[in-house]
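Both lines are quoted verbatim for reference:

——
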Amino acid sequence: TACSCATETQGKILGGQDAPPGRWPWQVSLQYNGHHICGGTILDQHWVLTAAHCFPRSIRINDLRVLMGITNFKKRSWKSQKTRIKQFLPHPTYKHRQVLTDGDIALLQLRTPVRLSAFVRPVSVPPTTFQMQPQAECWVTGWGQVHYKEAPVMTLQEAQVFIINNTYCELYLGLPHPTHNTTLCAANLRDRAMACMGDSGGPLVCEVNGTWLQLGVVSRGRVCLPTVAPSVYTRVSYYSAWI
């Protein structure tokens, strides 16, 4: 189901700005023993999309919860929902022991269906052939760090970022951060906005003809130093058929 819920805003995650309630209704928090570990997005009433690296082999699925319909962890309300995970499906090409690996994307099947509302809505996935031009305006959201060396935040953050050419991204990041057709890069180098620790698994979304498409899943990048660098995202369109 397409969603046109988000409206024009400004802000960033690293050094960021709070997201108003309901602006990003597909955003979820993956929680382990009551603590936020990663982000994710609602695909439909039964499935959530996230990053495979959020789930090391030692993690116990029974101790995980998916929290949705919430912006501030300290302000739970009737709008929020929580459910358990039935199964975790990483992409077959993902390799747990490799830092730089393809397939850093995963599906979570939920134990109970999501109740859709104005605050809990699915995001749209682009087709396999979809391409977004460099410098296109997009948004990244998450509960990760907003300042270097600070703890993750309680309130969802939002950042306006721009798609960056993969060749430039490789030069900017340097080795060992190769990029190719399974990934894409984005950041806002002018306003020093980027994804950071705790944002992994969350969405990079772009509005295309009135519909919000999830182009990327927060995957990796440099440590969140004061000097901002592009973040690397798993390219969702490459995995659309698998999804």
Remarks:
- Residues 27-110 form a domain with the Thrombin, subunit H fold (CATH 2.40.10.10).
- The CA atoms of residues 45 and 132 lie 27 Å apart.
- Confidence is low (pLDDT under 50) at residues 4-12.
- The longest helix spans residues 166-173.
